[in-house]
Amino acid sequence: MGLGTRKIAGVSLLLAMSLIAFMLESFLPPMFIPGAKLGLGNAFSMLALILYSPAVAFLIVILRCVLGNLITGSLSAMIFGLCAGTVSISAGILLWKFAFPKISMVCISVCCAVIHNIVQCVVFCAVSQTWEAVVYLPYLVILGAISGFAVGLACVLIVKRIPSRMFAKIGANVTLN
User: Would residue 174 count as lying in a domain?
Assistant: First the structure.
């Protein structure tokens, strides 16, 4: 992971936007199910995977979870988000490395979102010793698929609509073309 000035600036920009999305979502009420969110901050992790590298995407997920929860004061939520975030981005990285372009970026995003919701629910059940919360899993999978589709589609549209020279200015390499 070579760190040129432009790359540091581009990665910092993605992290900042990811944190802003995370914090804005913390002000919104849950979607139908306690704790459920759209996961808009994940778009910037996926963009980091597309534009930079798996290591950068992983770093953004970890920093967003830690810094976002420290800023919003949701330290208990950090346990769930960090576990789910690292497992889901790891799955995304594996799919990116071994299945892309056979499966689309949108499909990878959907898989990541569904895995994130499953892991978060399982960790919540394990920590709280409340296994009844597993009844939320079908709904969380559906919400994850919907939000993963939206995030993946947004990432593809961003990469395809913005000229490559703009990405070059932040030290990124566009890999969806």
Answer: no
In this structure, the dihedral spanned by the alpha carbons of residues 8, 26, 135 and 90, taken in order and rounded to 10 degrees, is 0
> Could you list the residue range(s) of the whole structural domain that residue 25 is in?
5-168
* Cα torsion through 72, 77, 80, 83, rounded to 10: 40
Contact 148, 113 (CB under 8 A): yes
Where b means 16+ CB within 10 Å and e means fewer, 88-97 reads bbbbbbebbe
> Is residue 101 one of the residues assigned to a domain?
yes
Q: Contact at 8 Å (CB) between 159 and 116? A: no
Domain count, the chain: 1
Summarize pLDDT for 151-168 with one digit per residue, the tens. 999 999 988 888 777 777
Any idea what the CATH number is for the domain that residue 42 is in? 1.10.1760.20
C-alpha to C-alpha distance for 50 and 176, rounded to whole angstroms? 7
pLDDT, tens digit, 9 for 90 and up, residues 91-118: 999 999 999 889 999 999 999 999 999 9
